[in-house]
Amino acid sequence: MNNFNFKIPQEIICGQDSILKLPEILKKQQLKKVMIISGPNLNKMGVVKKITDILSCEGIEFVTFVEIEANPSVETVDLATKAFLASEADSIIALGGGSPIDVAKAVGVLAKYGGSITEYEGADKVPGTIIPMIVIPTTAGTGSEVTAFSVITDRKRNYKLTVFSYELIPAYAILDPNLVMTSPVKTAAACGIDALVHAIEAYLSKAASPFSDAMAEKAMELIGKNIRLFVADRQNEKAAENMLYGSMFAGIAFAWARLGNVHAMAHPLGGYFDVPHGVANAILLPVVLEYNALADEGRYEKIYHYIKNNKGTDNFIPEILVAEIRKLTKALGIPENLTTVGVTEDLIPAMAIDAMKSGNIAINPRITTQKDIEELYQRAL
């Protein structure tokens, strides 16, 4: 067993209407003015207004930056940082899925330490604590509210850079199931599979520990029992709650065990072809699981039982899990291959080079070369 360490340096508030505790959290930290970082769709849907109404009722000053796109860019981070500094706010509320949360983390770094987010690419380059932040997820998928990562697209390189530092973990997260119940069906499906991939890759990682295993197993249990129900009906309160909590547990798992080939390969798909992250993960998952089956030490069967919701399978082989994942993604309406989302063969070598730069390759359960990555992209086409 690997030596391991962990900590949970956050306060996480869960439950229906838990966003009403937001003013209490801000006052507890003696924060006077907050910037809300979110996206245009959430703004149009009135989700941002829900937060601003709560703040207004308590006389808390706020400003908003609601221009965060999918696969957010270095330029967007720069714009949001300038807006934050000009506003003289002292804190950030990140409202949304992974994109607004990733930008908020990056702004939290740059507003305090300056420079470009590209200067912090890699591990442990953030010198200390960042701007105080409260994260409110509106999707059950990314787990970004509990992770130490910020992923930002560098358009100049067609590359998704990753900033990794435990300083990025927000001090507070509010998990209110009411907010994820507004998810469109495609978002619910893609984000739900994204959360499942987080749990599976953390569970199979060479860096897994008893702590991360416990988080991953609970995540797979909650997601396996609820993802179909939630995608079928986002107004199913219990399914929404369980998906949100499952996503959070999966986030904690991969914050400490990291991920694998699926995520290493998914980021270039976003950088070169703007494929939504959850969709990229969902398409790649069965392909990578099939490749990693050679290294399975019995965990594929456990994963299968969480997804299938049964307790026993005679004569289990890893291919049974692969087939079940394909069946699940098809039922949820996920595209079956990369060709259907606009990916072309000519950029596979370039994407493979970028994928190999990911630290996730080193902890994938099966040793992987650049040639292997190219072949896996070919299979996924």
Automatic annotation (TrEMBL):
Coiled coil: none annotated. It is an enzyme of class 1 (oxidoreductase). Keywords: NAD, Oxidoreductase. GO terms for molecular function: 1,3-propanediol dehydrogenase activity; alcohol dehydrogenase (NAD+) activity; metal ion binding. InterPro entries: ADH_Fe/GldA, ADH_Fe_C, ADH_Fe_CS, Alcohol_dehydrogenase_Fe. Its EC number is 1.1.1.202. Residues 189-380 form the Fe-containing alcohol dehydrogenase-like C-terminal domain. Residues 9-177 form the Alcohol dehydrogenase iron-type/glycerol dehydrogenase GldA domain. It comes from the Bacteria. Belongs to the iron-containing alcohol dehydrogenase family. PANTHER family: ALCOHOL DEHYDROGENASE, ALCOHOL DEHYDROGENASE 4. This is 1,3-propanediol dehydrogenase DhaT. It comes from Acetobacterium woodii (strain ATCC 29683 / DSM 1030 / JCM 2381 / KCTC 1655 / WB1). The gene is dhaT.
